[in-house]
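Margin note from the TA: students keep mixing up input and output lines. Inputs are the sequences; the output is the structure of the whole complex. Example:
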Amino acid sequence: MKIGYPCINRNIGCTANSTFRLASYSRENLISKVENNLSCLRNILEFNVKQGLLFFRISSDLVPFASHPICRFDWLNHFKTDFKEIGAFIQKNDLRISMHPDQFVLINAKDSDIVKRSINELEYHCDLLDALGLDKTARVQIHVGGVYGEKDKSMQRFIREYRKLNMKIKKRLVIENDDKLYSVKDCLVISNETGIPVLFDSFHHQCLNHGETNRESLVMAKSTWKNSDGSLMVDYSSQKSGARKGTHTEHINMRLFRQFLAETEGLNFDIMLEIKDKEKSALKVIKALNNLI
DNA sequence: AGTTGTCAAGCTAGT
DNA sequence: ACTAGCTTGACAACT
């Protein structure tokens, strides 16, 4: 079981997701931001290894505007050596890596231009992971997409569009249950048709389910991952008290987390802690797990 | 130096 | 009709 946190480290004092406005796009700006981001990514990964945090989500902003038509720069080639070095570090330390393109990526959009842009964005994520030299256990997670007032048709559209994707994307893409539209059960239907692995988000499951327990849903999601896909990825969070339903907590609630661990005892998976204080909660969990052994 | 409006992309639900 | 929220953060223009 590997423990991790997404994109940002609040301790080190650098960011691996620094970007700029589209209006200030230039080759120089892009190069300097990517240089900064890559150097910070190294720092974060080194910190993580020292602390025993072996799961990390790389920010989609690592290469700003990579899939935008304005970007004509061959960043893949230009930073080829850096990617290789960072990738070697990841492999040497057996780190698990994920990426999570944002809400604009919609495979099942009705507008074919949106689908096209989405595929370009997925291609960027997969090119990056390929450049790092990572195998298919490094994954790119997205949600199913929009409902457009007709869920069945929208799910069918996802399936159709997924089947058309090239292998570069297919080998890394996984779907994650969301908190409002597509439950784990919905994702499993799509997985049955396509073979796409289902990432289990415990907090989203808490917000949207059909009465299944965490364990039941996690086991079902786990069954969609083949050995070569790596172990099941789980996103974990809990409700921020007093806030709108679905708001992630600032700090981890260890009582709830222990409860989750107890519920899922004996099952192997990697956990991404989607908690706002980032590595702070992740370190708390590492400490707690060490005390259990 | 510190503050604050705004940022490529889209959907949904709530006002 | 409009906007907050999404993994929210951070850029950049303004005091």
